[in-house]
Amino acid sequence: MRVWLLATGEPVPTDAANPRLHRKGMLAEALVSRGHEVVWWTSTVNHAEKCHRFPRDTVVEFGKEYCVRLLHAPLYKANVSLRRVLSHRCIARKFRRFAPGEPPPDVIVCSMPTIELSVAATRYALARRVPLVLDIEDMWPDVVLDLVPSWARGVGRVALSSMYRGMRYASRNATAIIGLTAPYVDWALAYAARPRSALDRNFPMAYKSDPPPEEALASARELWQRHGIEETGHNLVACFFGTMGRFFEIPTVIDAARRLRADGRSIRFVLCGAGDNLARYQEMAADTDNVVFPGWVEAAEIWTLMRMSSVGLAPYLSIPNFTNNLPNKPIEYFSAGLPIISSLKGVLSDLLERYQCGVTYENERAEQLAEILAALDDDRERLAQLSKNSEKLYVSQFTAEKVFSEMIAHLEHIVATTKPKSHVAEVRS
Length: 429
What we know:
The chain is 45% helix and 16% strand. The protein is of the alpha/beta class. The chain folds into two domains: 2-206 and 399-417, Rossmann fold (3-Layer(aba) Sandwich), CATH 3.40.50.2000; 214-398, Glycogen Phosphorylase B (Rossmann fold, 3-Layer(aba) Sandwich), CATH 3.40.50. The protein has an eight-stranded mixed sheet, sandwiched between helices. A six-stranded parallel sheet has the order 13-12-11-14-15-16, with helices on both faces. Helix 9 (250-262) crosses helix 15 (366-378).
């Protein structure tokens, strides 16, 4: 079958020599390996590094069965900004322009967000009777409204009214709704105003545990040695990878590190990533020599550091977009057999408790985070058991081979058994 994947914001195969692909990138590779044809529509904007991949609309082919169509759009520097909205609208507009000139697909899998591209994909699918699968990866626009102070939520909802209309339109006209978790699927079905059908399923994020090339690993080990992180070190190392923005409680982690240092603990914190608040966090930790900010790191550095670390940190805000989700980062920690120390309630905390592969602390409770890490530092047997449980959970539920094989079988079933809607559902505000 010919599959169109629509997703912006993810790494693409051209980003590096050995890029760390996410959901659509791994799905694309899995589809091609099973003999399907893939066209991935995305943006020239590298969301993580805030730069352009190409100066114009570009098509990159990876053999006869796989190409990536990169649509040029305005660059944005802040994740929450008007310029990012304009960039999303530009991508949707270009998709509407170019898609009709391409051979039509057998099925479209569209990531939500973005809302703008999802709406454009829905209109295309309805007009050509192509099955549309909406893949819920974030709870937009609700997550945007969560950033608005409570006293301004009414005004915020009015400002986001076009996004809410778009979400209703796309979800009500999708052939199927899938998502990272069951609560994500149920959330979108509420917008669709219909019950769950046999075609609506959740598929978790997945990761490959295969190592990068040895040359890249050797370079990564040298980087971590320069930061004082050794492969055979006895000191407990807590790692984090993510955006240094407003959705992670990094100040709580820095406070915990300071408390542990004051108690004479040799626990290292390696906080990787870039973002709007990086400079502020570096200043906050200037007097705390057990905290390292390496900045943005690539796949080999991530793979290596996780296997040099003792635990993975997941200091999320406990807002619905996260409590209803099993975020990408914890699953990547599982792939390295890392126990997770998390502040996130909901799906993740339930999983950590059920499978005994991590510990949850209260949001903004630095003293509790410090106590948990100190206890694990003293009880290495418990730490080792949590690690074994984490690796076992990954193998049983979250390998890329398992998750994407099931997802592809589901897409094949949708193509074989469904007739897409021939009408546009009425959408009312």
